[in-house]
Structure formats: C-alpha cells, structure tokens
Amino acid sequence: MPKIALGAASSVSLYKACQILRGFKKAGCEVQPILTPNAARLVSPLLFSSLSGRKTIVETFDPDHEWSVAHVALAKEIDLLVIAPATANVLAKLANGIADDFLSTFYLAVEKPVLIAPAMNEAMWRHPQTRDNVSRLKARGVEFIEPEAGYLACGDSGPGRLADPEAIVAAGLSLLRRARSLAGRRILVTAGPTREAIDPVRFLSNRSSGKMGFAVAAEALRRGGDVILVSGPTGLEPPAGAEIVRVTSAAEMAAAVLDKARSAEIVVMAAAVADFTVARPAKAKIKKSAGAPALKLAPTVDILKALAGRPGRRFVVGFAAETGSLRAGARAKLKAKSLDLIVANDVAVEGRGFDSDLNQAVILDAAGGEIETPVLTKSELARRLWDIIESHAAKKR
Ligand SMILES: Cc1cc2nc3c(=O)[nH]c(=O)nc-3n(C[C@H](O)[C@H](O)[C@H](O)COP(=O)(O)O)c2cc1C
Predict the structure, then answer these.
(1) Is the model's pLDDT at 180 over the cut of 80?
(2) Could you tell me the pTM of the whole model?
C-alpha cells in the first residue's frame, strides 16, 4: 500500500485538504496527515486523524511521537509528500531550507517525490518573492500543481485558488506510478565537462556545469532507477542514492562509460566530452619565459560510437550542444552514432544551456519524430526527457 504524507498549511482552503486526504484513501493509499501549527489553529487535527486513521502530526517536539526522531523516520517510510494547501509562508520556508516546524523540517529529510499545491491571494501568488521561491523549488525537482484562477475567499478574483482536490489526487497518484516507473532498471548518466591537461597546472575544458546531467540522474532516481553517474569535474552535490564515478579527462570518461555501460539498459550521455586532447602534455609546468607553446591536439575516443559497437541492447540518448543549425547538426549526430534519441540545445542563447538553471531543447528520435520543449528548468526538462525515454524504450524492448 503506497504511503503518502499529506502536509497542509493555514490557508483558507484548508478544508479542501480533507477531500484530498479522502481521495488518496479511496485510491488505496495510507495517509499520514501533517498540519502546520497555524493550520491547527484553523481546524482541529482530530478531523484529519479521524479521516486518515493516523494521528495528525503538528509539533516537532511532541513527547507522544511514536518514533525517536519522527521527521527522519517518517521520511524513509513514505513514497510521496504532498503539501496541499501550501501557503506563501511554506513556499518561502521550503525554498530557503528553514526548518522551524514539523512540516518544513520533514521536507528537508524527504528524498522522495514532492508535490505542492499552493493557495493564496492573487497578489501574494504574483509577488516576485513568491515567484522566486516557486522557481527555486521547481529547479530542485519539486512538482507543482498550480493554483486556479477564480473567485478567492478574500473577495479578489484571479490566480491563487487551490487546484481542484480531485486533480491534486490524480497528480499525486500519477507521481506515485512514476516513482516506480524505472524500478529495477540500470541507468548510466554522464555529466559535466572533461579536462585535458596541458601541463600539471593547466588544462583545456569547456563551459559545461554538469547541471543537466545531474538533473537527469536525479529524476531517474526519483523514478526508482539504479543510477550510475559518471561525472567530470563539477562543484555540484551529487544526487543521493546514485553510484558516483568521478573522472577528469575524456580518456577516463570513455573508460568509465564503456565499463559501466556493460550492465546498463539505458545510457544518457549529457557530459560535454572534449573532442580533442593535448597530444603530449608537458610533465612540468610550462614556463612563461619559454614563450607561447604550440599545442598539438589529438582526437579523443568517440564514446558514443564506441558504445554503439559494443554488444548488448541498450537505449542510448545523446546530447548535442549546437550554436546554429540545431536540428541538422543533431540529426546528423543521431544517425552517425546510432542513437535512439538526441537532445539538441542551442548553447549560444543567453541565459540558457551552460551553467544556467534553464534550458530549452529539441528532442529528436531515430524515426524522424521531434519534440520541441519550451524554456524549462533543467529538472523539468529532465522529467520531460524521461517521459519520452520511457515511452520510446518500451517500444524498443
Ligand atoms: C483565515 C486565514 C486564511 C488564510 N489564507 C491564506 C492562504 O490561502 N494562503 C496563504 O499563503 N496565507 C494565508 N493566510 C495567512 C497565513 O495563515 C499566514 O501567513 C501564516 O503565518 C502561515 O503559516 P503556515 O504556513 O505555517 O501555516 C491566511 C490566514 C488566515 C487567518
């Protein structure tokens, strides 16, 4: 039986959380209600306890907690956290890691999918601070079911009303299904740049931050996959639960990928691997006094091509960072390297691609199909990409 933690904050739409709770129960889920202390001033926790059959959690320091550290123990037990309604205050706290009540502390301990349904006055929803908080949470992979436009309890009319409880339950159930959609599948993801040594202190590299590959790995983990992440040098915190293989050069990346790909069913190559390396890197630091050196470059191993030649049936996804003629370049790469899908993005556009939290892509498949995404956070793009990979990989099986 899937287990859901349902958090609810002190919005006027709190009464609808009862319908949401009942919806999840009807669908066969176990529901652990959590109210913020302010929500418990608007309604009695007893109402939620009676509907769920479990004691509603309100206080972090409740001496009657069944567990020693309830927020940590519960975070491990659940399959999904739904927060509906979420106030502007809850969004601000979650976006900034403030943990001053049970719900916000619990959120930090949860490594499972999180669905948030905000509800507030229209001006509060439009406030730049709230917009910023929502964007930050989305960038971290939190899913939102946006408020609807309509008559609000405060008398205003506009976006801010809690989404329909049935739609929230449906979104939660679909997230639960998705959370298991890659269970038992071995997935290899590459991320980040490579560094090609010129001498012991200098190297050739590129502007990849690794954010896209890390987002792809994090989403695969959220779907229950066994994930190996081969990463070039990045300053990013690796997603919890992945096997991390750190590499520096293109040659190390190639060796790690060809080794780990033997057991992988799906390979997503988001790393920006150097095409050329320095033919003979200097053993000692090159002295300025010796004048500008002429660097002789040599091609690196073409990992995707090498992978295509290896035995075994794998679903392989490549990335193409282009700076013009996006589709033509990507389609040529798709064909030349026998890929199943290619994600093409124009890295010359300001504010997207390299090092940005945003990306826009055209996803091309081997049968000639293509899907163009809007500008999305890298987490959202990773989600779209996995939806597409899963539907294409199912056909290939
Ligand atoms: C009757 C009532 C209704 C409220 N409705 C909302 C709401 O829909 N959305 C919101 O963000 N804040 C709303 N507020 C304000 C929040 O309750 C307030 O910001 C509170 O500090 C949030 O605490 P919490 O997030 O810990 O529950 C409401 C307050 C009251 C008294």
Answers:
(1) yes
(2) 0.81
11, 41, 107: residue to mutate for ligand 1 pocket, most atoms within 8 A of CB: 11
CATH number at residue 52: 3.40.50.1950
18 is catalytic: no
Q: Is residue 280 located within the same domain as residue 165?
A: no
Looking at 154, 244, 332, 348, which residue is catalytic? 154
- List pLDDT tens digits, range 117-147: 999 999 999 999 999 999 999 988 899 999 9
- How many domains does the chain divide into? 2
The whole-angstrom distance between residue 111's C-alpha and the CA centroid of its chain comes to 11
Q: What is the mean pLDDT of residues 64-88?
A: 84
Ligand 1 centroid to residue 75 C-alpha, Å: 25
Whether pLDDT at 67 is above 60: no
Nearest CA to ligand 1 atom 1: 12
User: Among 89, 104, 125, 156, which is best to mutate for testing ligand 1, by the most ligand atoms less than 8 A from CB?
Assistant: 89
Q: State whether the beta carbon of 119 lies less than 6 angstroms from ligand 1.
A: yes
What does the pLDDT read at residue 41? 97
CA distances from 53 to 46, 50, 173, 349 (A): 10, 5, 20, 53
Kindly report the number of other CB atoms within 10 A of residue 115's CB atom: 22
- Give the domain range for residue 370: 186-396
Q: Which residue has the higher pLDDT, 395 or 370?
A: 370
Whole-number Å distance, alpha carbon 12 to ligand 1 midpoint, is 7
- Identify whether residues 158 and 254 lie together within a single domain: no
Q: Is the dihedral of CA 237, 230, 331, 346 positive or negative?
A: positive
Top mutation candidate among 36, 87, 101 for ligand 1, by most atoms within 8 Å of CB: 87
pLDDT in tens, 307-318: 988 888 899 999
| Per-residue confidence band for 66, with pLDDT thresholds at 50, 70 and 90 | low
What pLDDT, on a 0 to 100 scale, did the predictor assign at position 240? Answer: 87
Say yes or no: CB of residue 152 within 6 Å of ligand 1. no
How far apart CA 101 and CA 139 sit, in angstroms, is 23
Look up residue 380 and give its two tokens: 């959202």
Of 40, 81, 377, the C-alpha closest to 211 is 377
Residue 196 contacts residue 203 (beta carbons within 8 Å)? yes
130 lines ligand 1 (CB under 6 A): no
**What is the predicted pLDDT for the residue at 310?**
84
